[in-house]
Specification:
- This protein is mainly alpha-helical.
- It has helices spanning 2-24, 37-72, 83-86, 113-123, 132-148, 154-162, 165-171, 176-190, and strands spanning 77-80, 95-96, 108-111.
- Strands 1-3-2 form a three-stranded mixed beta sheet.
- Helix 2 packs across helix 5, helix 2 (37-72) packs antiparallel against helix 7 and helix 7 runs antiparallel to helix 8.
- The two termini are 43 Å apart.
- The structure holds zinc ion (ZN).
- Zinc ion (ZN) binds at residues 143, 147, 154, 157.
- The site of zinc ion has 4 residues, from helix 5 and helix 6.
Protein backbone atom coordinates (compact mmCIF):
# COMPACT_ATOMS: atom_id res chain seq x y z
CA UNK A 1 0.00 0.00 0.00
CA UNK A 2 2.77 2.40 1.00
CA UNK A 3 4.76 1.60 -2.16
CA UNK A 4 1.64 2.06 -4.28
CA UNK A 5 1.06 5.52 -2.79
CA UNK A 6 4.70 6.52 -3.33
CA UNK A 7 4.53 5.22 -6.92
CA UNK A 8 1.34 7.16 -7.67
CA UNK A 9 2.74 10.28 -5.96
CA UNK A 10 5.91 10.34 -8.05
CA UNK A 11 3.98 9.63 -11.27
CA UNK A 12 1.67 12.55 -10.49
CA UNK A 13 4.65 14.85 -9.86
CA UNK A 14 6.31 13.68 -13.13
CA UNK A 15 3.07 14.26 -15.07
CA UNK A 16 2.50 17.65 -13.41
CA UNK A 17 6.04 18.79 -14.17
CA UNK A 18 5.67 17.70 -17.81
CA UNK A 19 2.30 19.44 -18.23
CA UNK A 20 3.67 22.63 -16.68
CA UNK A 21 6.57 22.52 -19.14
CA UNK A 22 4.17 22.09 -22.11
CA UNK A 23 2.09 25.07 -20.93
CA UNK A 24 5.01 27.40 -20.15
CA UNK A 25 7.82 26.26 -22.41
CA UNK A 26 7.66 29.31 -24.70
CA UNK A 27 8.29 32.53 -22.80
CA UNK A 28 7.19 36.08 -23.77
CA UNK A 29 10.23 36.47 -26.02
CA UNK A 30 9.49 33.23 -27.88
CA UNK A 31 12.36 31.28 -26.30
CA UNK A 32 11.73 27.56 -25.75
CA UNK A 33 12.70 26.21 -22.30
CA UNK A 34 14.38 22.79 -22.27
CA UNK A 35 12.29 19.84 -21.03
CA UNK A 36 12.98 19.25 -17.29
CA UNK A 37 14.65 15.90 -18.01
CA UNK A 38 16.34 15.48 -14.64
CA UNK A 39 13.36 16.10 -12.34
CA UNK A 40 10.91 14.12 -14.49
CA UNK A 41 13.50 11.36 -14.99
CA UNK A 42 14.11 11.07 -11.23
CA UNK A 43 10.38 10.87 -10.52
CA UNK A 44 9.91 8.14 -13.13
CA UNK A 45 12.95 6.26 -11.79
CA UNK A 46 11.54 6.27 -8.24
CA UNK A 47 8.14 5.14 -9.58
CA UNK A 48 9.75 2.25 -11.49
CA UNK A 49 11.76 1.39 -8.35
CA UNK A 50 8.46 1.09 -6.45
CA UNK A 51 6.76 -0.85 -9.23
CA UNK A 52 9.34 -3.66 -9.37
CA UNK A 53 8.66 -5.10 -5.87
CA UNK A 54 4.89 -4.62 -6.43
CA UNK A 55 5.03 -6.64 -9.65
CA UNK A 56 7.21 -9.35 -8.05
CA UNK A 57 4.78 -9.55 -5.12
CA UNK A 58 1.77 -9.92 -7.43
CA UNK A 59 3.57 -12.57 -9.47
CA UNK A 60 4.43 -14.58 -6.33
CA UNK A 61 0.83 -14.41 -5.13
CA UNK A 62 -0.37 -15.53 -8.58
CA UNK A 63 1.99 -18.54 -8.54
CA UNK A 64 0.89 -19.56 -5.02
CA UNK A 65 -2.77 -19.04 -5.89
CA UNK A 66 -2.56 -21.21 -9.02
CA UNK A 67 -0.93 -24.08 -7.11
CA UNK A 68 -3.30 -23.79 -4.11
CA UNK A 69 -6.32 -23.70 -6.43
CA UNK A 70 -5.14 -26.88 -8.14
CA UNK A 71 -4.71 -28.69 -4.81
CA UNK A 72 -8.05 -27.27 -3.56
CA UNK A 73 -9.85 -28.37 -6.73
CA UNK A 74 -11.30 -24.87 -7.23
CA UNK A 75 -10.32 -21.22 -7.08
CA UNK A 76 -8.83 -19.90 -3.81
CA UNK A 77 -7.08 -16.64 -2.95
CA UNK A 78 -3.59 -16.26 -1.48
CA UNK A 79 -2.32 -12.98 -0.04
CA UNK A 80 1.32 -12.63 0.97
CA UNK A 81 1.78 -10.29 3.92
CA UNK A 82 3.85 -7.23 2.99
CA UNK A 83 6.70 -5.80 5.07
CA UNK A 84 4.40 -2.91 6.05
CA UNK A 85 1.69 -5.26 7.28
CA UNK A 86 4.13 -6.98 9.68
CA UNK A 87 4.32 -3.79 11.81
CA UNK A 88 0.83 -4.34 13.20
CA UNK A 89 1.04 -8.14 13.40
CA UNK A 90 1.88 -9.85 16.69
CA UNK A 91 0.70 -13.37 15.80
CA UNK A 92 3.21 -16.23 15.78
CA UNK A 93 1.42 -18.43 13.21
CA UNK A 94 2.81 -18.60 9.67
CA UNK A 95 -0.55 -18.24 7.93
CA UNK A 96 -4.25 -18.23 8.61
CA UNK A 97 -7.71 -18.46 7.13
CA UNK A 98 -10.62 -16.55 8.65
CA UNK A 99 -13.81 -18.35 9.57
CA UNK A 100 -17.11 -16.58 8.95
CA UNK A 101 -19.78 -16.23 11.65
CA UNK A 102 -21.36 -19.39 10.22
CA UNK A 103 -18.17 -21.34 11.01
CA UNK A 104 -17.30 -21.77 7.33
CA UNK A 105 -13.70 -20.84 6.43
CA UNK A 106 -13.17 -18.18 3.76
CA UNK A 107 -11.62 -19.27 0.45
CA UNK A 108 -8.74 -16.87 0.89
CA UNK A 109 -5.64 -17.05 3.09
CA UNK A 110 -2.96 -14.76 4.43
CA UNK A 111 0.57 -16.20 4.37
CA UNK A 112 2.96 -14.35 6.67
CA UNK A 113 5.89 -12.30 5.39
CA UNK A 114 8.62 -14.77 6.44
CA UNK A 115 6.83 -17.81 5.02
CA UNK A 116 6.23 -16.00 1.71
CA UNK A 117 9.93 -15.03 1.60
CA UNK A 118 10.84 -18.71 2.13
CA UNK A 119 8.41 -19.75 -0.62
CA UNK A 120 9.90 -17.14 -2.95
CA UNK A 121 13.47 -18.35 -2.31
CA UNK A 122 12.44 -22.00 -2.72
CA UNK A 123 10.63 -21.23 -6.00
CA UNK A 124 13.74 -19.59 -7.44
CA UNK A 125 16.06 -22.39 -6.22
CA UNK A 126 16.81 -25.71 -7.94
CA UNK A 127 14.58 -27.32 -5.22
CA UNK A 128 17.14 -30.07 -4.77
CA UNK A 129 18.06 -29.61 -1.11
CA UNK A 130 15.63 -27.13 0.50
CA UNK A 131 16.16 -25.55 3.90
CA UNK A 132 13.73 -26.67 6.59
CA UNK A 133 12.15 -23.21 6.59
CA UNK A 134 11.34 -23.68 2.91
CA UNK A 135 9.84 -27.14 3.51
CA UNK A 136 7.68 -25.67 6.27
CA UNK A 137 6.61 -22.74 4.06
CA UNK A 138 5.36 -25.08 1.31
CA UNK A 139 3.48 -27.05 3.97
CA UNK A 140 1.95 -23.88 5.44
CA UNK A 141 0.42 -23.15 2.03
CA UNK A 142 -0.96 -26.72 1.88
CA UNK A 143 -2.27 -26.50 5.46
CA UNK A 144 -4.09 -23.21 4.84
CA UNK A 145 -5.47 -24.64 1.58
CA UNK A 146 -7.03 -27.46 3.61
CA UNK A 147 -8.79 -24.85 5.77
CA UNK A 148 -9.98 -23.07 2.61
CA UNK A 149 -11.65 -26.26 1.35
CA UNK A 150 -13.62 -26.41 4.60
CA UNK A 151 -11.61 -28.32 7.23
CA UNK A 152 -11.77 -26.56 10.60
CA UNK A 153 -10.29 -29.28 12.82
CA UNK A 154 -6.55 -28.49 13.11
CA UNK A 155 -5.35 -32.11 13.40
CA UNK A 156 -7.46 -33.13 10.41
CA UNK A 157 -6.33 -30.14 8.33
CA UNK A 158 -2.70 -30.82 9.27
CA UNK A 159 -2.99 -34.49 8.30
CA UNK A 160 -4.81 -33.69 5.05
CA UNK A 161 -1.98 -31.25 4.26
CA UNK A 162 0.72 -33.82 5.07
CA UNK A 163 -0.91 -36.09 2.48
CA UNK A 164 -0.97 -33.28 -0.13
CA UNK A 165 2.43 -31.60 0.38
CA UNK A 166 3.89 -33.56 -2.55
CA UNK A 167 1.02 -32.45 -4.80
CA UNK A 168 1.49 -28.85 -3.72
CA UNK A 169 5.26 -28.99 -4.31
CA UNK A 170 4.67 -30.43 -7.80
CA UNK A 171 2.01 -27.80 -8.54
CA UNK A 172 4.65 -25.20 -7.58
CA UNK A 173 7.16 -26.64 -10.03
CA UNK A 174 9.11 -29.36 -8.20
CA UNK A 175 9.84 -32.66 -9.94
CA UNK A 176 7.90 -35.68 -8.61
CA UNK A 177 11.06 -36.89 -6.82
CA UNK A 178 11.73 -33.48 -5.23
CA UNK A 179 8.07 -33.21 -4.23
CA UNK A 180 8.08 -36.62 -2.52
CA UNK A 181 11.35 -35.83 -0.73
CA UNK A 182 9.92 -32.55 0.56
CA UNK A 183 6.73 -34.23 1.82
CA UNK A 184 8.81 -36.94 3.54
CA UNK A 185 10.97 -34.39 5.28
CA UNK A 186 7.96 -32.56 6.67
CA UNK A 187 6.33 -35.79 7.84
CA UNK A 188 9.49 -37.24 9.44
CA UNK A 189 11.25 -34.12 10.78
CA UNK A 190 8.65 -31.40 11.38
CA UNK A 191 5.28 -33.06 11.99
CA UNK A 192 6.45 -34.85 15.19
CA UNK A 193 7.44 -31.47 16.66
CA UNK A 194 4.07 -29.83 16.00
CA UNK A 195 2.20 -28.67 19.12
CA UNK A 196 -0.70 -30.55 20.65
CA UNK A 197 -3.92 -30.05 18.72
CA UNK A 198 -2.10 -30.40 15.39
CA UNK A 199 -0.91 -33.99 15.82
CA UNK A 200 -2.76 -37.25 16.25
CA UNK A 201 -4.91 -39.41 14.02
CA UNK A 202 -2.37 -39.19 11.23
CA UNK A 203 -0.43 -42.04 9.63
CA UNK A 204 -1.08 -45.26 7.74
CA UNK A 205 -4.55 -46.59 8.64
CA UNK A 206 -5.11 -43.82 11.22
CA UNK A 207 -8.28 -41.72 11.65
CA UNK A 208 -7.38 -39.08 9.03
CA UNK A 209 -5.63 -41.38 6.54
CA UNK A 210 -7.26 -40.67 3.16
CA UNK A 211 -5.27 -43.45 1.42
CA UNK A 212 -3.88 -41.02 -1.13
CA UNK A 213 -1.20 -42.26 -3.51
CA UNK A 214 1.23 -39.46 -2.60
CA UNK A 215 0.95 -39.79 1.20
CA UNK A 216 4.45 -39.63 2.72
CA UNK A 217 4.14 -42.92 4.65
ZN1 LIG B 1 -4.58 -24.43 10.83
Amino acid sequence: MFLTLVLIGFLVVAAGTSVRWVLTRVDALGRIAPFPKISVGLCVAVAVGCAVPLVLHARLEGTLEDAASRVAGGPVGVHCQTAGETWTDAGAELGFVRWGADGVPERTTLIKYGACADLRSWLSSDKQDPREDQVVAVHVLTHETMHMVGLTNEAQAECAAVQRDARMAEALGATPEQAQALAHRYWLDVYPRMPEGYVGGCGPGAQWDEHLALAPW
